[in-house]
Amino acid sequence: MQVAHGNLLTKLPSDSSAEVFELLHERAGLKIERIVSNGQASPPGFWYDNPQEEWVLLLSGSAGLTIADTAEEHVMQPGAWLHIPAHCRHRIEWTDATQPTIWLAVHHEVSNET
After folding, report:
1. Whole-number pLDDT of residue 7
2. SS3 19
3. pLDDT at residue number 43
4. Locate the Cupin type-2 domain: which residues (predicted)?
């Protein structure tokens, strides 16, 4: 058995021109990744519509996220988390351009539990 380890706040990508998605762990029905943003946002008119549920935690920086059919923008600061149900359309309005915005994203299959 091999133990994996790391630090989500170190070894940041040197190129900040694009978001970087780093796969940390994956198995059937589960994907955990670190996302590093540097001022990126969703393209105009683009909405994420994922078949899996997603739970995100903002570790550093800041961001604004909008859920479709709502007027409220979720302004996220370090420590803020959000659970996004499967097929809940959402977009990133902005991320901090003055420092890295680091996300921990957990994608998982839809639970059958109520």
Report:
1. 95
2. coil
3. 95
4. 47-106
